[in-house]
Each structure stands twice: as structure tokens, then as C-alpha cells.
Amino acid sequence: MLQLLFRTLPPASTTQNPTAAAAAAAGLAVQLPIRLARRKSCRAMAAQKEKVWDYPRPPRLEPTSRHLVVKLGDTVIADTTQAYRVLETSHPPTYYLPPADCREQFFTASSKGQTFCEWKGKASYHDVAACGQEAKARVWSYQNPTQPFAAIKGYYSFYASPFTCEVDSEVVQAQPGDFYGGWVTSDVEGPFKGAPGTMRW
């Protein structure tokens, strides 16, 4: 009889506090979907990352509707959703913004002269000055680009420094080094060309 009594008794934790056991079960039921959702979100973000070593060479030009904003100090220099971006192996994207969406009254021709890109042609440089701040030769454009890049004729591209540049409200990081002008965002994965020792990549 005593053995039968022991066999039919419920577990001690449930007998002592049945509401605690129910609450724990309910909490687990809530937490599991949240944890699974977080894992799925992390996997989705990882899957959406663009790897710059998957970009083509020669580079590809493509339109983008992402919201781009460029500021010098507190002054908005450019604001557009009608830009282009250039994708090239080992480089973060380089964005080209239409002159209609740039405040060209702040631009003057730079004394830097021109540089030559094997893919796009000769680049001209521009200084930007606004509200007591100045960025010398930190903007460039192609006035007579090669045929594959004809769509960005007269468009402006900005070095991420000393400007504050945003892609969909995310402040970008400058491509390593001071030669290339790519914008690094959280959805782009390197390693990136530009740092010391990478110029021959």
C-alpha cells in the first residue's frame, strides 16, 4: 500500500508550487519562438550580406534606390534616391549621385587636376565649402566617361571623409586608405582593398 502511494504522488516541484511549473512552461513557450525568430533573423542578415569578392571585374554599374545623404558639418550637400553604384572586386560600393540632387552652389573646381581610371576615364575633382567648413578635392565626377559608364556623366561621388555619408540612415565607414572612395556599410563584407599591403590585390 505504501509503495502504491509513492508511485501515484506527482513530482515534488509540481505538488509544492503548481503555478510556478505552469508559469515556467508558459515562459518557455513564449521564449522559444522569440529565440527561433532571432536565429532566423541573424541567418537572413548573414545571407543578405554582399561579399565584395563576389563583385565583378571589370566593374558593374547599376542604379540604386537606396536613400543617400551627404553632409558637411550640419549642412546637407546631397540627398537622393536616384543614384548609381559601381561594384568592383575587392571594393565596397562607390556611389554616384545626380547633380540635380546635389547643392552645387557649394562646389568649386579643385586645383588637384584630373586622375585616370582604366574603366571610367578621366575624373575631375571638386572642393566643397559650406558654413565655414571645407573639403578640398573630396568629390569627383566624370564629364566624359567611357561608354559602359555613360549613365554617370556629371554625377558626383564623395569620399566618406570628411563628409558624413548615409545609406538608408546608416552612417558609412570610409574604404581603408585614402585613394579609393568606396562606402562601407553593415551589409557589405570584406576584406577591402585600400589598406597598406593591399594595393596589388
TrEMBL record:
<protein>
    <recommendedName>
        <fullName>DUF427 domain-containing protein</fullName>
    </recommendedName>
</protein>
<dbReference type="InterPro" id="IPR038694">
    <property type="entry name" value="DUF427_sf"/>
</dbReference>
<dbReference type="InterPro" id="IPR007361">
    <property type="entry name" value="DUF427"/>
</dbReference>
<dbReference type="Pfam" id="PF04248">
    <property type="entry name" value="NTP_transf_9"/>
</dbReference>
<feature type="domain" description="DUF427">
    <location>
        <begin position="69"/>
        <end position="160"/>
    </location>
</feature>
